[in-house]
Specification:
Residues 33-145 form the Acyl-CoA dehydrogenase/oxidase N-terminal domain. Residues 1-13 have a biased composition (Polar residues). InterPro entries: Acyl-CoA_Oxase/DH_mid-dom, Acyl-CoA_Oxase/DH_mid-dom_sf, AcylCo_DH-like_C, AcylCo_DH/oxidase_C, AcylCoA_DH/ox_N, AcylCoA_DH/ox_N_sf, AcylCoA_DH/oxidase_NM_dom_sf, Glutaryl-CoA_DH_mitochondrial. The protein is globular, with a radius of gyration of 23 Å. The chain is α+β, with helices and mostly antiparallel strands. Strand 4 (192-199) and strand 5 form a beta hairpin. Helix content is 49%, strand content 13%.
């Protein structure tokens, strides 16, 4: 016979908090006050400086005032924010992820600006650079006074960077760098480029001032995705660099790939920001748009769409948070980052597309954020690792068999 005398009385049970449609599974309970403060700072900045203008920037296909935006992002600690020292904020991985989510809720192009600056260019210098390189470049990059870019992808070598043709050869004490890089965020506004090249000793990274003779960065136009983002080609025509331009602490693909893993982590969070903005637009629209005499949010099929989107959105945020905790504990593996990017970007695109169906014809208008986020995510889906590449990373991890070649 069970003893019920020890069960708590109903009056002693904690009162359940009210259901929060914006946080339906209580993920905010996992966040520390410092995490929430970072999130609110970045959200407020984006609401003030990006959201009022982003539709116009996107329609015009440009990001005016990028240098001023970079300095403002530096002033709130968003550039290289998870790095330590040299003017960087030293924030946690979870805090960096929350910042990426809020930035991409405004626009993927803004998150890309921050991600390339901090997780690619600054991260490469911070992890693999000499002390002199760190002191020369990182403080200015953290403040936004210097914008950086990261040159890995080439016109004929995207998913297979080992085949890159950009080459650096020794000439006395100097290096001479020749080649082309493609689809480079921040390229034409950067003051410094981290460029990866073949050498006689393997793939090496080079810190290249963009005012060096022979370096140019023509901007890529006619994009239908990431339109509010600066995207460029990098052209190196026998760029002469001093011996100390090479990153001394790494040789081989593990250098750029570790940088990409760090940047992909930010995408795991960022994609959920784009999804959240689209989902919130759909919910608001469904509650006010009337058909057949009542709001469409009162119809079963619309509610089913909203419920399914909410489930995938918050599962994705929960996954991002879990990976962030693993990164903070030094336990995040590249395969786990692939898991996150594969799932979250794929689900984010589906949320945007489903949101568009709720908005109907209005869903294609720039008066609403949905189509802008959907088209941006088409780029996010394939940059820093296509769906197929992340599937094969996971396939190899699951089976122990390499299907890449």
């Amino acid at each position: 016979m069970s003893d019920t005398s020890k069960l708590p009385q109903s009056s002693q049970r904690p009162k359940l908090p009210p259901f929060d449609p914006g946080d339906p599974i209580g993920i905010d309970d996992l966040l520390a006050p410092e995490d929430l403060a970072v999130r609110e700072t970045v959200r407020a900045w984006a609401a003030d400086r990006v959201l009022p203008h982003i539709a116009d920037w996107y329609e015009r296909g440009e990001l005016p005032g990028i240098r001023e935006l970079a300095r403002e992002l530096g002033s709130i600690g968003a550039l290289g924010m998870s790095l330590e020292g040299y003017g960087c904020a030293g924030a946690s991985a979870v805090q960096y992820g929350l910042a990426c989510l809020e930035l991409e809720a405004a626009d993927s192009g803004i998150r890309s600006l921050v991600s390339v600056q901090g997780s690619l260019a600054m991260y490469a210098i911070h992890r693999f650079g000499s002390e002199e390189q760190k002191r020369r470049w990182l403080p200015g990059m953290a403040s936004g006074e210097i914008i950086g870019c990261f040159g890995l992808t080439e016109p004929d070598h995207g998913s297979d960077p080992a085949g890159m043709r950009t080459y650096a050869k020794k000439d006395g004490a100097d290096w001479v760098l020749t080649g082309r890089k493609m689809w480079i965020t921040n390229g034409s506004v950067a003051g410094v480029a981290v460029v990866w090249a073949q050498t006689d000793d393997g793939i090496r990274g080079f810190v290249v001032p963009t005012d060096a003779a022979g370096f140019s960065a023509p901007e890529i136009k006619h994009k239908w995705s990431l339109r509010a983002s600066v995207t460029s080609e990098l052209v190196m025509d026998e760029v002469r660099l001093p011996a100390d331009a090479v990153l001394p602490e790494v040789t081989g693909l593990k250098g750029p790939l570790s940088c990409l893993s760090h940047a992909r982590y930010g995408i795991v969070w960022g994609a959920m920001g784009a999804a959240r903005a689209s989902f919130e637009a759909a919910v608001d629209y469904a509650k006010t748009r009337e058909q057949f005499g009542r709001p469409i949010g009162g119809f079963q099929l619309t509610q089913a769409k909203l419920a399914d989107m909410a489930v995938e959105l918050h599962k994705g945020i929960l996954l991002a948070h879990h990976l962030g905790q693993r990164m903070d504990a030094g336990r995040l593996r590249p395969e786990q980052v692939s898991f996150g990017k594969l799932n979250n970007v794929r689900e984010a695109i589906e949320i945007c597309r489903t949101s568009r169906t709720i908005l109907g014809a209005n869903g294609i208008s720039l008066e609403y954020p949905v189509m802008r986020h959907a088209t941006n995510l088409e780029s996010v889906l394939t940059y820093e690792g296509t769906v197929e590449m992340h599937q094969l990373v996971l396939g190899k991890a699951l089976t122990g068999l390499d299907a890449f070649r």
